[in-house]
Amino acid sequence: MEAAWAELPYSQGSLLGSVNPDLASERQTASFSVEKLTAWLDGGTEHTRLRRAVVEAIECDPVFSRENQYFESQNERYEAAVRKAVHLQKKMDEMGWTENGPEFKYIYRALSGDLAFLLHRIFTRSISMLGSDQQIAKWIPLATQYQLIGSYAQTELGHGTYLQGLETTAVFDITTQEFVLNTPNISAMKWWPGDMGRSATHTVVFAQLYVNGKCYGLHPFIVQIRSLQDHSLCPGITAGDIGPKMNFEHIDNGYLMLQNVRVPRENMLSKFCEVQPDGTYVRRGSQKINYFTMTTVRISLILDEVVIPLMKACTIAIRYSVVRRQSKLKPGEQEAKILDYQTQQEKLLPQLAAAYAFYFISDYLQELFDRGYREIQRKNFDMLPELHAFSSGFKAMVTQYSTSAVEICLRACGGHGYSLLSGLPSLYTKIVASCIYEGENTILFLQTARFLIKCFMAASTGQPVPPSVTYLAAVTPEKCPAKNKLDFLSPDIYTEAYQHMAARLINSTAAKLQDLVQSGVKKHDAWNQCTVQLAQAAKAHCHYITVKNFAETVEKLETQPGIQKIMKHLCDLFALHGIFSNAGVFLHDGYISGAQMDMVTASYLDLLAVIRKDAVPLVDAFDFTDKTLNSALGSYDGQVYQRLYEWAQKSPTNKQISPAYERYLKPLLHKTLSKL
Amino acid sequence: MEAAWAELPYSQGSLLGSVNPDLASERQTASFSVEKLTAWLDGGTEHTRLRRAVVEAIECDPVFSRENQYFESQNERYEAAVRKAVHLQKKMDEMGWTENGPEFKYIYRALSGDLAFLLHRIFTRSISMLGSDQQIAKWIPLATQYQLIGSYAQTELGHGTYLQGLETTAVFDITTQEFVLNTPNISAMKWWPGDMGRSATHTVVFAQLYVNGKCYGLHPFIVQIRSLQDHSLCPGITAGDIGPKMNFEHIDNGYLMLQNVRVPRENMLSKFCEVQPDGTYVRRGSQKINYFTMTTVRISLILDEVVIPLMKACTIAIRYSVVRRQSKLKPGEQEAKILDYQTQQEKLLPQLAAAYAFYFISDYLQELFDRGYREIQRKNFDMLPELHAFSSGFKAMVTQYSTSAVEICLRACGGHGYSLLSGLPSLYTKIVASCIYEGENTILFLQTARFLIKCFMAASTGQPVPPSVTYLAAVTPEKCPAKNKLDFLSPDIYTEAYQHMAARLINSTAAKLQDLVQSGVKKHDAWNQCTVQLAQAAKAHCHYITVKNFAETVEKLETQPGIQKIMKHLCDLFALHGIFSNAGVFLHDGYISGAQMDMVTASYLDLLAVIRKDAVPLVDAFDFTDKTLNSALGSYDGQVYQRLYEWAQKSPTNKQISPAYERYLKPLLHKTLSKL
Q1: Where is the active site (chains A, B) (predicted)?
Q2: Complex-level ipTM
Q3: pLDDT in tens, A614-644
Q4: Rounded distance, CA B203 to CA A122, Å?
Q5: Which helix (H) or strand (E) holds B500?
């Protein structure tokens, strides 16, 4: 035993870099080319090349290092984020990257969003969209050169998604040609805006506009909150940081109270509305476009804040699950890789399939949005309701599903998944926020439901509806035609099942709503009594579209048969997992029978074993660098234990002799010395 | 507006303590006596009195304060936990409280488990259970007086639940009469033991025992790891802290490597096995009792680590949901309390019902365990398999359900739930660990499933089985007899539905297993191919027993009709929520028809509105003090916004001017001065 010890790998310097043989073997049997899949996901090899170049440029710059992130305090995280944001400006100049260029999304990916001044970007965007030409000319150059730092103050301590309820006031004072801003109540304090707690010098404040005692509703005002000279708070301003959160320690989410703060008349953003010097209120153009801003934010966050983190979680959990061995599958053999257990496959592979499904749906939504944007530029606003409904419902569905998927990945890694060093806890604590910000999910589902109910009513009376919802009035068979388990590997079969189910839920909820109203229940009460089912119906609609879009994406892959085959398996898995886990809604009206559900289950479980073989290549294709993953469990080389040990030694808990010893332990323990 | 500002509540000192009127009004309409419900939950008024006295004694002692907990670093949390543990010893002496007295559970509740040396307790317990009389006489007095600090080193970096896989070795050296302990590989490093990273001087190490080259399997050894003189590591010991985790910052989970560490022969715990001086290995007595230790730990953690945190989360989320107002339910009215929305009720009230259900099942398990313990003391080990199966399955079900319940509570509070100051994030990050520790949930479910399959086989061939599983062979009707939605408020109806469903899942999985084996699949492969369904069946069994136990608990309440009535509603809600959310398994064989499922849904949604009225009294009855909840959202007075604001100001992010300003922001902003 003694001799063996001296030859231990960990007594001889690091193994990091040499690939763990259990992981290496997984890569030798891929049924497809990982490089080709990566290129296809990126939209072509030239995109892959650009992405890799950008990521490398970021990662080789030590200022952007995330090496010690898991050990840092909230104050340290904030400081690092500011440092990175300021340095990034320089770097972008140096590299010739622009904010609106193709590189920015790769920069954001390489930094894992870990930088300050993201709200500054919203500040800038809101001025560009809502400001007059003069306002744009004045503020945008300052903002883009970081000569001021902006924030965006909308949400209040007592008011979130329901914007009409905001209480902050802006009263026009005709004598001085100023607006006087006030926080009339504690619940009116601005609360949560990023970059506001410690950084911002300016902010766009949303306030109820009063002119001559009349309220004109919410309007945006540019307000300076801190001195450019010494960063002290401006007169009438109370502001600070809202304290610790579940994640986003790097962001200084802040609070803001306004006490008789005066801004010149020119500081109300006035592309669409203006208060003229004599107090006349003028509204011009369409305000519908405001809708569109939220839509674009919701669509872009799906990829950046949700799908990419989910892909990371899958990469970490799946690589770890072929390195970790536990118990024996067969008596007498060595302990088995945990991914060889059906239960572990059933935890992780559906999440992997979902990551692909949501990657494709994010593409689909982006295309829909681009089409909508072109129409809007031609002053055609017809697509707005559909876009709003889609961005709301998919934001809600994808964030909810992915949050639970990341949690499954974390728990599937057992104790080590619970260590911050695995990278999984921070992915979870960050993604869970996506269920809340940019519209709380339940409210979003209900907005989608309202659209669907309207379309259903229209479609059933023969009126035209957007193509995505014509299925609501389509006639489908009453029974699923599948005869054996292989039939359930046909996209037509399962897509139709999803369509039938979504249509039924919308249909039956619409009927309940009508019944209630006809029985004398007031409309708003009836609506409230149906909301649990309405939210379920909206989710079912989004699930259906996601399955359909996945199947269509696979179909288009005919020129790449290797990739098409494995994508087909994932599509089948995503669809059958959904039926297996939501069996009730498919069985409810007998569309799928109990016997057919057994076929679904059989095919679903068979697929797990098939996809298992390609699990590692499928996550390798996401092409995350080790630095991006920042995970002791998920690195490319699979040196899990070595890395956990090396990283743990860097923890501040190992760098300091705790004062607790001298203060509390020593007095106790010294009593013992004589007794042992 | 100016005048109004000067009169703001927050400009006039704190409102804390005066109850928010929206919350106060909820307490005036309770359908039952909160005080009576509290007393009943505690098991009698005398228990309530004792609990309150203990909690008060702890809370009025500033050493135990958790006031700044959300702002502290891992190092600070650790130091506070040690301080509290040492102080608690003094306090207990002072108050005449004993470790095994009735007070300890209340102490733990008052401290929210936030103290060091919990593993020291396991160290002590393992010596008491596994040590010889001499060993007990030597070590226990030292341990109970904290004259040494113990830990319990079982889990290794590469080995968790599968204990046979542990790699640490202990070789008997006959010449010196010592055991030589080694860590033969990096994956054999002890990893995770609490109190080991920085505190422990001694630990019980589990290692594979070798005598004369023969391996005798795992045995426990007492090993000193740190000097009692100066706390330095002993020769051959490498140890430290494993670094940051998702929670449990107050615990110094550690790692330990052993390099030719020698301990005397007397340090092997030898109640059941001994190595004699000549190297003869002697085994005595039954080792089955080892089983029982894990069983007791699993049963006791259900209440302390899972149900109480869930009750806290419900208290916080429900109180907040009657203070928070958002949007309008009826046009023209003021914004509505969010708990008046059906969707919010549907999020929170089933979790409240689950908290009660699990409180009762924890009682049930405790009784079962007490009965088992009495039998074991009479050397009757017959109940061990049932106890093991129950403790495994219920630990898995309750932790999984409650983790998701706490997450729902967190998300139901929107943005403010995401602030650490709400108390919800730390409840979540702590409870999620319970799915992993003391046996990973999937593995536990499968152990329960193995027991159920065995019992099913026995029962179907007429052999006797424990009373809790006789239902597996019972004949039940093929269709649920309910005719209208009110029938589903009958405990007989829904309990029978659960029973039918659980029996069917076990039955059908047993059949699949048999089919596979009969078709030539090897037994272990067949088992693996059924594990997804086996886990589902085990969960269904536990769900059924929980519903049944809830219904029986309600029945026994006949002398307290007020409480019985509201408990009946909660029992109905728990049961119908389970059918509604797992509709597939009830619809699968037609036991419940689609039309009946609509009745379930209708009754379920109706119940939400009924229980809504008593929601606040139902959480008040849990009787948590504000200090125990430690939540800005959940305090008894409901002064949510005031408290968030006051607490945020104490954050270190507001107490320091960030170096980021001088370093990064000032150089940028000073360029701007001339331009604005």
Answers
A1: 438
A2: 0.96
A3: 999 999 999 999 999 999 999 999 999 999 9
A4: 55
A5: helix B491-518
